[in-house]
Design brief:
318 residues; alpha+beta; four-stranded antiparallel sheet; two-stranded parallel sheet; 11% strand; flat
Length: 318
């Protein structure tokens, strides 16, 4: 390997030209590697030999020109990438979630070593931003799950069906049914499902009014509440007092905490909200990062039959 030496005695213009040319080479090396590299890593990838002090100067030149960016230490060595730290962090998160859906906790454990300068809260904030921008999806809760998963892909039916169906299959085998009979039954069920008029799960939206059917099918009992009931009228009145601006988004937490609703059960309050949505008086606004909330905060949200959570309401403008 040919050794290239930065001649400190060379004229300033020649030295600067050489440093610039070498910095361009270093940037190409880092980009070709596909991962951030330390100075030592860059040296290993070079096809020419450069003394480390000279290479450090070359890397510093590339950083000063914003062609390379420090993206945190890895194995106690500062590493460099061709994009800023935040962009690198978001790309890394998306790469991990391309492989499989993960909870926020598991994801943090997979990226925390590489993102050593980020706290868990920082990573959670990146997740929220990625969901809002559409690069990630927060999936509806899996059956019997308590924490949402994040993925680069929309919800996949097989992921929700696999575990429950496997349990049913085991029970059917235990009582004497053959696998052939079970498969035949599943095929028949699939045919019936294709021919039925049952609507598919709607795509996740940031702003979703709940249709009438959702209020009836919710796992939480939702008693019938007329649009002119005292409770719905009180809710609308208090919304006006909190913010008289039409269309203003009002968080459900402070609304639930008002004295007027302290003797109202959660089921009654939620049913009244869905009644106001059904009668086109309110919109509900979805919380896009439920997986980052603890159980107490999640319990304060409004939930529909599809497993979507809503954190705020706003009055519909005519």
């Amino acid at each position: 390997m040919m050794e290239v030496v930065v001649d400190s005695a060379a004229p300033r213009s020649e030295r600067e030209t050489f440093i610039t040319e070498m910095s361009q080479l270093v940037v190409k090396v880092v980009e070709s590697a596909g991962v951030p590299l330390s100075v030592t890593g860059i040296k290993k990838h070079l096809t020419v030999s450069i003394k480390e002090p000279d290479l450090i100067e070359i890397v510093e030149q590339a950083v000063a020109q914003q062609k390379l960016f420090p993206v945190g230490k890895f194995n106690n060595k500062e590493t460099y990438w061709v994009r800023p730290l935040e962009e690198f962090a978001k790309d890394l998160i998306c790469q991990k979630l391309e492989k499989e859906p993960l909870t926020a906790y598991v994801l943090r454990s997979k990226v925390e070593k590489r993102l050593s300068s980020y706290t868990p809260k920082d990573i959670d904030q990146l997740l929220i931003e990625l969901v809002k921008s559409g690069r990630l999806n927060e999936l509806p809760l899996y059956p019997n799950a308590r924490t949402n998963l994040f993925s680069t892909q929309p919800p996949q039916a097989i992921n929700y069906l696999h575990a429950p169906v496997q349990k049913i299959v085991k029970k059917l085998i235990a009582v004497g049914l053959s696998r052939a009979d079970i498969v035949a039954g599943m095929k028949q069920l699939a045919t019936e499902l294709e021919e039925s008029d049952a609507p598919a799960m709607p795509p996740t939206k940031a702003h979703v009014p709940a249709p009438e059917s959702e209020a009836k099918e919710s796992s939480i009992a939702q008693p019938e509440t007329s649009s002119g009931s005292e409770l719905t009228e009180t809710i609308m009145s208090r919304l006006d007092q909190i913010d008289a601006n039409p269309g203003a988004m009002i968080d459900l937490g402070p609304l639930r905490a008002l004295n007027e609703f302290q003797h109202t059960t959660r089921e009654e309050f939620d049913a009244a909200l869905w009644e106001l949505v059904k009668t086109s008086q309110l919109n509900v606004h979805e919380h896009r990062s439920v997986g980052l909330l603890n159980e107490q905060k999640r319990a304060a949200l409004l939930r529909n039959a599809q497993g979507q959570y809503f954190h705020a309401v706003s009055r519909r403008t005519r």
